[in-house]
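ok so for the tutorial part 2 we go from a plain amino acid sequence to predicted structure tokens. step 1 is just haveing the sequence, like this:
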Amino acid sequence: MAAFAAGEHLWVKRLGNLRNTIRQEVIRRQLAGHVAGGMTVLDVGCGQGTQAIRLAQLGCVVTGIEPSDTLRALCAESAADQRVGIELIAGTIDHMDDLLGDRRFDLVCAHGLLMYLPDRSAAISTLAGRVQRGGLLSVTWTLPPMRTSTRCSMPRTAPGVPTRIAGWRRSCT
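step 2 — the prediction. this is what the tokens look like for a chain of 173 residues:
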């Protein structure tokens, strides 16, 4: 997560800009057809809490994991302003077993997290391991600019992750 920490101040500065607003709206719309009140949600790398708060407003029971004190504070403040409860936990994906024990969730989200991690396949497997049977895994990440010399393959799953919850994994060489 050191890769994110180095640019965190820029992220906070850009909150609310057009690009971030559109990105958050696209994610909201993609989740809309899959979410119902009462679902348990884990948002790993919840940041300032845009999606966590929206899901809590829909009646979901939301747990957010975020390593940044600044972003966790922004999330807590926004959740209080919106009068929704979110369980916020200081931590990273690497420590989820210690933080969550054996808890599983109906929906596990990791939006904008994977590009900061050295082993995306391991991260997807870790996230998928937190999904309740029949639940959903929602993952987004930013890809680097494509070069003509870059070759990419898109296998259907990461190793050990069932196809129906993994979606696509992009591997570039």
